[in-house]
Amino acid sequence: MTQPSDREVRTERIFNAPRERVWKAMTDPALVVQWWGRGNTRVIERMEVQRGGHWRYVEHAPDGQHGFEGRYREVTRCSTRPKSATAWSRAA
């Protein structure tokens, strides 16, 4: 994790999986709820995976509901080229 500026945090992760599988896990709401969060029930209310698209996830925890949302600033679909990346940035 790096902090390129005082308003930006960059995280990079390498997965031992085909790019298309990673892309689907990060963009398919039915798959996102399987890995995102702290183990509580989650609802994906919005997930518009495109530049400027809105995302909103709601976690239903014992202490109440917690909403997380923002906009996608950049979305780059993975490629079949070696060393290509699946990338996006979210503004919270």
Can you characterise this structure?
A four-stranded antiparallel β-sheet has the order 3-4-5-6, covered by helices on one side. A two-stranded antiparallel sheet has the order 1-2. The chain has helices spanning 19-27, 29-35, and strands spanning 2-5, 8-10, 41-47, 54-61, 64-76, 87-91. With 92 residues, the chain is of the alpha+beta class. The chain is globular and about 40 Å long. β3 (41-47) and β4 (54-61) form a beta hairpin. The model has no long low-confidence stretch (mean pLDDT 83). It is built from two helices and six strands. The longest helix has 9 residues, at 19-27. The two termini are 17 Å apart.
List keywords for this structure.
4-stranded antiparallel β-sheet; 92 residues; globular; alpha+beta
